[in-house]
Amino acid sequence: MTVPPEAGDTIAAVSTPPGRGGIGVIRVSGDAAVAVVDGCFDSREPVRDRLARYGVFRGPDKEPLDDVVVTVFRAPRSYTGEDVAEISAHGNPVVLHRILDTLVGAGARRAEPGEFTLRAVAHGKLDLAQAEAVRDFIAARTESQARLAMGQKAGALAKRIHPEKDAIVALVAGLEAAIDFAEDDVPLPDAAVLAERVASTASNLGLLADTFAYGRLIVEGLSVAITGKPNTGKSSLFNRLTVDGRAIVTDVPGTTRDVVTETATLGGVPLRFSDTAGIRTTADRVEAIGVDRTLEVLSEADLMLVVLDVSRPIDGDDENLLSRTAGRPRLVVANKRDLPRRWDPSRFPGSVAVSALTGEGVEALKAAIAHAVTQRRTPSAEEFAITSRRQSETLASAIERLGAAAEGLASDVPHEMILLDLYAALSSLGELTGEVTTDDILDRVFSTFCIGK
């Protein structure tokens, strides 16, 4: 997918989610959008910008398809920056697709995923980071996700990097002037001063880059693996934390032989809980496969809940699990606190004693998980965080080139070479907001959009 030309063709798509509902919306955008819609629409009211009109939408043979409301948004005061017509019909998928087919027959074509937002970027209505925020806002499942996406949609990223871009431009201007007008005795800026300014700019961008860990957490969620040897109450705890009851619970060791996952929300952050097969040495082939899958999940988890049975002595399987998870983000959960204890949970600092059977201590465990989440939030991520890997990689590239420029200044590298690094850093910052784009970048961003947006 590439940026459409100024005089692009006319596209159409159903913009509301699949399924039945009270209302369904078809969006049409392009130079011929109003003419295409008007040719299929009977209304007593004339076409007026930003005025909703009621009438009948007719098919190719002029048969009435539905009573609809059409609203026109003339360029450039529309979402895409082009002429846009929106048809609000009854939310019956059959009717909506008959209307769409009629529009295609009248001269429009079906939009590709994200093409409306791509046109908004092409016509300067949104920058690339704001377009990504539109996608994230639509996909938001929690208030924190929606709030973060709304901030980016309002242009927060562009505002954050603007001072740093200005600082790099000032550095470039000073060097260019000194090089171009050397014969006029324009002095070169002091290398130490330049290096300090470059390092300061890189540091500020580094603080922004550090917010990605928390931004990714808000958007993608925290992966929490519940692990332990068989019959320690992992599945019961999984059911308590997810309030779903998906995991089968019996008193037979090794009941869970595959990974069961469910999502819950805690403090506005989505948590992906995984109930895993008990880890122990076993001759059972099926159970052994489950153990292998458990180890794969543990290797990718952001946080592990290591469940130990406080009513039984710690044995070799427990010790093996504790050794496997040492040095990784984990919480030790001393389960079955409703039974007589055979060991003191305080031997594991930060551990939480619970009873998955009665629910005792579960709220304290949730608080401990929430604390593990907030620890990932840096001070610079309090109000804003970058959320996409593209943004993170692009920022890292800018910081790397600024680092190269600072090293060059300290090593008396010719200023022409320093300028190459500074220009490259500026180009990377331009990629963040779409001022500098390639087809690969656009494809990477808009391939994840839904059709109709």
Care to describe what's here?
With 453 residues, the chain is an alpha/beta fold. It folds into three domains: 11-125, 2-Layer Sandwich (Gyrase A, domain 2), CATH 3.30.1360.120; 139-211 and 383-446, Four Helix Bundle (Hemerythrin (Met), subunit A), CATH 1.20.120; 222-374, Rossmann fold (3-Layer(aba) Sandwich), CATH 3.40.50.300. Helices cover 44% and strands 17% of the residues. It contains 15 helices and 13 strands. It has helices spanning 33-38, 93-105, 115-122, 128-139, 143-153, 156-180, 191-209, 212-220, 234-242, 285-300, 316-325, 362-374, 389-410, 415-433, 439-446, and strands spanning 11-14, 21-29, 41-42, 52-58, 64-73, 84-91, 109-110, 222-227, 260-266, 269-275, 303-309, 330-335, 352-353. Strands 3-4-5-6-2-1-7 form a seven-stranded mixed β-sheet. The protein has a six-stranded mixed β-sheet with strand order 9-10-8-11-12-13, sandwiched between helices. A hairpin with a 2-residue loop joins strand 9 (260-266) and strand 10. The longest helix is centred in the middle third of the chain and has 25 residues, at 156-180. The chain is flat. The model is unreliable at 1-7 and 245-257 (pLDDT under 50).
Structure characteristics:
453 residues, alpha/beta, Gyrase A, domain 2, Four Helix Bundle (Hemerythrin (Met), subunit A), Rossmann fold, 3 domains, 7-stranded mixed β-sheet, 6-stranded mixed β-sheet, 15 helices, 13 strands, 17% strand
